[in-house]
Amino acid sequence: MAVLAKSLPGFFPILLALLHALLDKNLHAPWAKQSRRWIYWAPFLLVPLAWWGYLFLRYGHEVFVVYEVFVVYIDDFLNPDGQPTDITRVYRSLKVYFIDFIVTYLPWIIFTLLGVQIIVRTLKSSGTDSRAQAIAGLLIGWIVIVILAGCVKPAQYRHYLVPALPAISIITALAVVQTVKQHVLAWVPRVVGLLTIVVPIFLSCLPVKQDKTTEKVLAMRNVLTDRLPGTAPVPILTLRTHPDHSGYVLERDRAGSIFFFGRELRPLTVSDVNAERSRGGVVLLVPTEAFPMFAEEIGLNALVESDVWVLAETKPRRVHRT
Fold it and tell me: Can you give the pLDDT at residue 65?
């Protein structure tokens, strides 16, 4: 999970171990047996740390910019570096991590909300066993950590909630069991076991659906590898400029370029592109929605088109000699 996420979820094993030990009042030596089982996962933290070390050696400190929580959050609202200067991120986080998630997982989300109510009631009850309260606090903390880790990223995607799904599933199952009673679910393990065998066989027989977006991005990467030396930054046409008329791009575009192409972005304004055209053709990225407007104006030929970017090439400007 940590290798796939390449982010804060890599620290979940030790964070959850400490959280559970704190809530269960076992944060002292000798540690309880249950807590030690969590701590045994700590060596696996070397896996994401090794991955981050590789990224640092290849791309430098820029790969960690999205994890500078307070700086990124302040920049998102105050710094004119391309991030939105309003509450766009707050709205996007609420929409992706709450509204979209709730709509997607209907009707199960109803049981999740009932489970959250049971968990909160357990935490508030003074007569509840301390171990049950610790488990309830662990589940809530688990989900909160994942949401916070997703909110501080420059872009928000629903798959950032994947590490929280085990906790959400446990809370949902708690409400389901208490609602329909245990004896009604006696047949569930048999059905799950049968589906575990049947579903993979069925899915393996289906034709593989090609992801066109992935194909386009890979094609762009191949062209950039052929046209640009080493890890040279990718030129990108932008209409966003600082007061000194220098161009800039959004942080999510920079992160996307590093992720997909392994390269930084080099923002170019229209005047910059025209200046470079006089010295030869330029291969650059153009936002898809802006491409039709500039294709004729600055002479762009589309090489690869996707939903987000168009990889285009400019023709050298002809110099008329007298």
Answer: 53
